[in-house]
Amino acid sequence: MSVPGIVQSTLGSEEIAARVSLGGDDELFVTSTRTLVYRADGLLSDESVEEYSHDADRLTLSEGRRKTKFTLEYSLEGTQKFTIPSSKTDAVLHPVLAGILNGNEITEPGETVVQTYRFSELTLIITSERLVKHIGGAVWDEDYQEYHFSDVTELAFEDGSVATQIVLTVDGRPQRIKAPNEQANDLRERLKRALFDYYDVDSLEELNELVGENEDWDDGSEDRTASMDFGDSVDPLSSDSSEQDAVEPDVTTAEDDASAEPTTESTTDPLAADNADVKTTGDRSEQPRSTTQRRTQTDSQQQPERTESRTEEIDDEFEPATVETANVFDAESKDIDSRTQPPATADPDSSASDAETTKTDPELLERIDALEDAVERQSDVIDEQRQMIEQLIAELRQGR
After folding, report:
1. What pLDDT digit, counting tens, does each position of 360-388 carry?
2. Strand order in the sheet with 48-53
3. What is the pLDDT of residue 3?
4. Quick one: pLDDT at residue 80?
5. Where in the chain is CATH 2.30.29.30?
6. How far apart (Å, rounded) are the C-alpha atoms in residues 26 and 40?
7. Mean pLDDT of 293-307
């Protein structure tokens, strides 16, 4: 895969030690002295290369849901930052951290970085010749601890239900390192393999037998109490988490519902039989029937085919009238007839003729064609905008 011309000119005579794709055409290049972040030409930025020296005093990561920010602090230059997609964090951290170890002369020429692990605030780096350990908010700074394989006198593992303790004895002093069980097996195997290759042995028993023969240290209690054991005082698996206050739901009790004012709307049951009077709820009392109601009932008894007495009572209750009930129903019947009959001026043949004329109107057809053309143009514009938005989202996810 070819290297972009702008990157090649920035590299000069340096060789690329690692190369990581950041999505799209963006890439990250690592050399022995610096890290180069290449951004391809896009909607948000032009083609560019940013370089970060490996002689940083501190490396900190700020991980988000979509992006991870790398912050490098220098004694003279100040602080420099670059952002990558969160999915590329581990792939980028390993070569960058290896370059920083080399830039700060922690690792020697020819020494390779095997693997990098992060357990909460604990960072472990296995190289071909040592184990580097750092505890704190930063991934690495000058407060690191290193255990060279030439000083190891024993290696053991203590399995637990949640975490596994790696007991690396250095010059007779045990250093305990906790690792979650999900990653403990991988850490165990890589550390064993690195030590096996360093001492040219094939098993843990051979390793402990070989390094135990070289153990030469005072058995006094003073030397034992002076062990630099950070495992007992610092738990790398613990992480600070802010307590969340529980939100009390707003519950309305039955007593609150009971204390609400009763409704004052009248309720009637027009379908109830043998109910002469309309009863109401709340503070309203029963109302005596009016003279018109009694007259209506009398007329209803004489002429049962006209209407039911219940309907007349409801009509009188909501629309009091001083006319005879028979006249009221005659007027309503006429009103209904007038509403249901079509207007005298309506001409079906004329309406059909107008509709046919409308359909064949050339001016209307021309307007419809113009609207269709406008809709097609708008659809094309929307498609172009959608493609541009998708490209912008892709570039934002790449950390631009």
Report:
1. 688 888 889 889 888 988 888 998 888 88
2. 18-23, 26-30, 34-39, 48-53
3. 92
4. 96
5. 11-216
6. 5
7. 46
Q: Mapping DSSP to helix (H, G, I), strand (E, B) and coil, where does residue 118 land?
A: strand
Continuous H helices in the chain: 5-11, 89-103, 181-199, 204-213, 221-225, 254-258, 291-302, 309-318, 325-340, 348-359, 362-397
Contact 29, 9 (CB under 8 A): no
Count CA atoms within 13 Å of residue 323 on its CB side: 8
- Look-up: residue for tokens 């100040």? 78
pLDDT at 152: 95
Strand partners, 37: 28, 50
Question: H helices within 169-308, ranges in order?
Answer: 181-199, 204-213, 221-225, 254-258, 291-302
Q: Identify the CA nearest to 160 among candidates 224, 103, 231.
A: 231
Match 């580097």 to its residue by tokens.
132
Q: What is the pTM of this model?
A: 0.56
What 8-state DSSP symbol labels residue 58?
E
The predicted pLDDT at position 400 comes to 61
Is the Cβ–Cβ distance between 320 and 290 less than 8 Å?
yes
Residue among 105, 107, 133, 109 at smallest CA distance from 191: 133
What radius of gyration, in Å, describes the C-alpha atoms of the chain?
A: 44
| pLDDT tens digits along 12-27 | 899 999 999 999 899 9
Q: Please report, for residues 292, 294, 300, 314, the alpha-carbon distance to residue 324 in angstroms, rounded to integers and kept in the order given.
A: 8, 11, 11, 15
pLDDT of residue 289: 47
Question: CA 176, CA 212: separation in Å to the nearest integer?
Answer: 18
Question: Per-residue pLDDT for 93 more than 50?
Answer: yes
CA end-to-end span of the chain: 23
Within 8 A by CB and 6+ apart from 74, the residues are 53, 55, 56, 57, 80
- Sorting pLDDT into bands at 50, 70 and 90, what band is 319? very low
Residues with Cβ within 8 Å of 143's Cβ and at least 6 positions away in sequence, in order, are 134, 135, 136
Highest mean pLDDT among 89-98, 283-292, 301-310: 89-98
CA dist., res. 110 & res. 11, Å (int) = 21
Quote the tokens at residue 143.
Answer: 């407060």
Distance CA 334, CA 376 (A): 54
Q: In what helix (H) or strand (E) does residue 115 lie, and over which residues does it extend?
A: strand 113-119
Write down the CATH number for the domain with range 11-216.
2.30.29.30
